[in-house]
Amino acid sequence: MGGTNILIIGSGGREHAIAWKLKQSKKVSKLFCIPGNGGILQDTARADGGKIDILDFDGIYGFVKENKIDLTIVGPELPLSEGIVDYFKTKNLKIFGPDRRSAQLESSKIFAKEFMEKYNIPTAAFEVFDNYDLAVKHIEHYTSHIARSLVVKADGLAAGKGVFVCDSKEDAEDAVKKIMVDKIFSSAGKRVIIEEKLTGQEASLMALCDGKTILPLVPSQDHKRIFDGDRGPNTGGMGAYAPAKILDEASAKKLIFDNFLRGLKEESLDFKGVIYAGIMLTNHGISVLEFNVRFGDPETQVILPLLKTDLLELILATVDGNLNKCKISWEDGSCVSVVLASGGYPGKYDKGKEIFGLNNIGDAVAFHAGTKFEDNKYLTSGGRVLNVSAIDSTLKGAISKVYKNVEKIKFDGMHFRRDIAAKGL
Ligand code: AMP
Ligand code: GLY
Questions:
Q1: What is the pTM of this model?
Q2: Does domain 4-100 bear CATH number 3.30.70.890?
């Protein structure tokens, strides 16, 4: 019997890490990626799919038929929330990811909060508003009687920009105005959540879920701010490490995932994919800030290098509902990934800069995020350009290995954080 032909949807470091891991499986035959990026298309997967949009389901279906794809793996949230899994099911095709109803756990923050409340998953206290005046009234009451700080969130997908952590009444009113009156996120801001502001360190815990069984992956920590010491504006993530020992996995599994599974069953949600819990470790215990319904980015770039079990086996077991028969084994050490960003990022940034030194990478791997390959050269094409990941038997060793390799790479304007994983030491 031949191997499995796989299509990966997406174009970031996460998708490169998935492709890189799958390439190590003897059971994988051909790998394709839509739309991919310079690195993915050069050294891992092939596709002329670059011209197909990730929301063009008919176009993707045509590609799947033409290339005899056996399994499609969805990286980003947008196609999931637009129902790519439901579409594939009508065509009797195998696809890894939750259907549109389940994807609401990420595409509607209100859906997620109400789910958490109903099934006793710890989360910050919240109120929902679809009326601007009532939201403003609530902010006045909250800031004068309960606490000065609060968090305002647009309900729908806003490319990670829909959350406003506010330290005054004015900030909060301004956030609600931007979302509901100025409509900066258009219909994603029809409703807002106003919630309690929590404090503490953050951690990420992902799990594979086939609807009946949940298998947690190792916990990790992302670094969202642009500058060392967690200062400056938020980004898509500047680096990560795993395992994050700060999280008590057993209690997180019990409080979050056991209740999650109960909720799926009661709501008849067909969830086959990755559930990602963004967690805050408060003085009163863990609290879930958000769910994502897919692999995290850049967390995947530190988790998959530590995975010993065949990734294809795990993904097929998830899609086929056989996760109860699986066990996951991990390397003993730690993995650290540092994001190399373009000059100007997270604001307006340059593109088209030549990247040097990729051939000098030794005991690390450079996952491509925002690159393209042209005239035999790699050029920058996004804000986050590369994710350099290294593993070692100790976290300290992984940090020094990863930075030794980062130093070998250069492009005009390149910048990165120098303290990734230091909080894990
Ligand atoms: P979310 O997309 O809901 O994870 O929010 C993005 C970021 O906003 C989180 O990673 C936190 O840093 C912050 N955040 C979200 N909710 C809260 C909260 N209730 N209290 C404090 N910070 C929060
Ligand atoms: N690292 C956060 C995310 O993937 O959304």
A1: 0.96
A2: no
Domain 125-196 is classified in which CATH homologous superfamily? ATP-grasp fold, A domain (3.30.1490.20)
| DSSP-derived secondary structure letter, 258 | I
Q: From the CA of 279, how far away is ligand 2's center (Å)?
A: 12
List all residues whose CB is within 6 A of at least one atom of ligand 1.
Answer: 124, 151, 163, 165, 195-198, 202, 224, 278, 289-290
| Sequence-distant contacts of 373-378: CB under 8 A, at least 24 apart | 373/38, 373/39, 373/41, 373/42, 374/38, 378/38, 378/39, 378/354
Query: In residues, how long is the chain?
Result: 425
Atom of ligand 2 nearest to the CA of 294: 4
Ligand 2 geometric centre to CA of 137 (Å): 32
The β-bridge relationship of strands 371-374 and 377-380 is antiparallel
* Residue having the nearest C-alpha atom to atom 5 of ligand 2: 296
DSSP-derived secondary structure for 292-343: ESS--TTTHHHHGGGB-S-HHHHHHHHHHT-GGG----B-SSEEEEEEEE-T
Which ligand ends up closest to the CA of 290? 1
Cα–Cα nearest to 31, from 46, 20, 16, 41: 46
Could you tell me the CA-to-CA distances from 397 to 243, 298, 334, 362, 380 in Å, in that order?
14, 20, 8, 15, 29
pLDDT tens digits for range 175-208: 999 999 999 999 999 999 999 999 999 999 999 9
Rounded Cα gap, residues 50 and 372, in angstroms: 11
**pLDDT, tens digit, for every residue of 385-406?**
999 999 999 999 999 999 999 9
Alpha-carbon span 62 to 41, nearest angstrom: 19
Tell me the C-alpha distance between 330 and 399, whole Å.
Answer: 19
Q: Domain residues of the chain, as ranges?
A: 4-100, 125-196
Rg (CA), the chain: 21
